[in-house]
Amino acid sequence: MTRFLLRGAPGAGLLSLTLLLAACGEDKPDNAFSLSDQAWSNAFANQSGLPPLPDAQPMAIADAGAPVAAPSVERLPAAAPIRYARPQGDDYAWIDRADMFSDALGDAPPDYGFAYEDGVQPWAWQSGDDYLRYAEPIDGGYRYYYYEPGGASPYLVRDPWNSYGYRGDQLVAVYDRGGRVMPWREARGRDAYAARYYARAVDMRRAARARERERIEARQWAARRAAIRQDRLRWDEARREQADWRRYRARQDVRAQQHWAAERRAREQAAVRFARWQREDFRGPQPLWQQQRQRDRVRAQQQLTQQQRDRRMRQERAEVRRDAADQRVALMQRRAEQRRDAARDEQRRATVRQMEQRRETQRAAQARVDERREAQQRRSARVQVAQQREVVERQAQRQTQRQAQARRQRVEHMRQQQAHKQQQAQAAQQRRQAARERAGREQAGRQQAARQQAQQARVERRQQAERQQQAQRRQQDRAAERQANVRQQVVQRQQQAQQRAAARQAQRAQHMARADGPARPRHQEN
C-alpha cells in the first residue's frame, strides 16, 4: 500500500513520504482515506497525454432575458443518506482544488451550456485536461459543481453558504461561507443537503453527456459575470483568513501554477477578448479565443512531453530509494504502533489506578459521612430522651399540683359542709330550746309529772343528738380516711407509671447503644 501511494504520484514522492511519516502517530477510522488525491497528483504530473480541447460553442447574441433559476436545496428531491468519511490531515484538499481551477478560469466566459430539467441551463467550463465546472443560477447567487477528468460524480459542490467535499459517494468535508472546516458534529447536521447535492450533481453530469451542447447568450454572461467573479473573490478572502488553508496552498502552489499555466493564459486572453467585444456592443465577428487556446495547448504539450521523459528517468533512479524509504516507513510505523500500544496500556493502567483512588476516596468520604450521621443520630436520641424525661417530669409535677389542689378543694368543701351542718344543728337546738322554754313556762303551772317527763324527754333527745353527732363524726372520719387512701393509691400509681416509663426509656437507650457499637461508659444522669 505504501509503495502504491509513493509510486502513483511521480514528482510528489517527498510530499507523500512526509504525509505518511506525519500520519504514523495517528489512528484512522476504517472509512477514512489519505487526502493525497491520486487523480489530482496525476493531473499535475501529466503521466499520460492531455485530452484534446473541449468542443466550445460560439456565443449567441440574442437577448434571452434572465436565466431560469434552479430549485433551492430544500425543494430538491430527497436523496438516500450519504456516508461520511472523516479526512485525516489535509482537510482543505477539496476546496483548494476547486479554488485553483476557478482561479485558472478567471473571468473567461463559459465554453457551452446544456439543457437540464425545468428550463435550467447550467453553464460549463471545461479545461484542456477535462476538469469541469458547472454553474446554475439559484435565488441568492450560483451553485457550482466540480468534477475530475472522466468523473461521473463531483468532488465539490458549492452554494452561496457552504461547500461540500466528496470522495466517490462519501462526504469528507463541509466548509462554511468563510472557508472554515466545520467540526464533525456540525458537518453531520448538513448530511441531507450534501446527499441532495450529490444526487443532483451525478444526474447533471449524466444529462450533460447525453444532450447537445448549447450556445451561451453573450449578454447573459455579461450581466452575470460580476456575480461569479464575486464568488471567486470570496474564496480568495476566505483563504487569506484561514491559516490551515494557506499552509495547504503553499504546499501545492508551485505545481498548481505550472499545471494551470497554459489554461490560465488562454482563459485570460478569452476574458480580454470578450471584454473588448462587449465594449463594441457585441458588433463585428465573434472573437475565436479557442484557436489561441489550441496553439498554447500544442506548445504546452511539447514541453510536457520532454518533462515526462525526464521524469521517467528520475523515477527509475529513485525506485531503489523509494523501496528503502518504504521499508523505513514500515519500520517506523511498526515502532510507532508498538509505542501507541504501550502508551494505551499505560493509559489504561493509569485510568484503573485513578478509578481505584477515586473509589477509595469516595469510600472514605462515605465512611466519614456515615460516622457523622450516626453521631448526630446518637446526639439527637440523647436530646430526645432528655426532652421526653423533662416532659414526663413536668407532666407529673403538673398532675401532682392538680391533685393537691383538688384535695385541698375537697377538704375545704367538706369543712364548709361540716360547719354548715353544725350551724344547722345549733340553730335547730336553739329552736328546740326556745320551744322547750316556752313549753316549760306554759306548763310550769301544770303537773310536776309533765315537767319530769319533759325533762326526761329532753335528756333522751340530747343523748340521741350526741349519738347522731358521734355517728356523723365517725362517718366523716371514715370518708376522710377513704379519701386519704385514694390519694395515696393515685400517688403510688403515678410513681409506678413514672418508674415504668423510665425503665422503658432506659431499655431503648440500651438498645440504641448496642446498635451504635461497643458499649461505652456513660455518665450517671441525675
TrEMBL record:
Residues 416-432, 445-457, 482-512 have a biased composition (Low complexity). The keyword Coiled coil does not apply. The keyword Signal applies. It comes from the Bacteria. Keywords: Signal. Residues 308-326, 334-377, 434-444, 513-526 have a biased composition (Basic and acidic residues). Residues 285-526 are annotated as: Disordered. Residues 1-22 form the signal peptide. This is Uncharacterized protein. It comes from Sphingobium rhizovicinum.
